[in-house]
Please model this.
Amino acid sequence: MEKTLTNGPHHIGLTVSKLEQTAAFFTEILGWNEVKRNEEYPAIFVSDGHIMLTLWAVKEAPEVSFNRKSNVGLHHLALQVSSEAALAQIYQRLTDNQIEIEFSPEPLNNGPTKHMMCLEPSGIRVEFIWPSQ
Model:
């Protein structure tokens, strides 16, 4: 088999409708670091030390809201967590900050892996997954 031509993600760019609130979701709730800002675009770059997200402010309101079942685009962003306790801590922080939770921590395909899903302030679905290995 031929070696792949890429070696993993460098960053993921997300267009968001609530730039400051989405950045705060990652930095204040999840403990990520703000790497830099581009006031001209505007954009905020955040990182957890493993992946960087570029959060771009939408220039115009979308005519149609994103629908994961009928639009081409990001279905969700999945972030791995280090432990079941970390998954529970994230759930509590999201709840404390009134973040919309799609479903609370539950087994994935009969476990032992567990995951949960929420909507960050701009409405992008974010999954947190603990592989249990």
In short: The mean pLDDT is 92. The longest helix spans residues 84-96. The two ends are 27 Å apart (CA to CA).
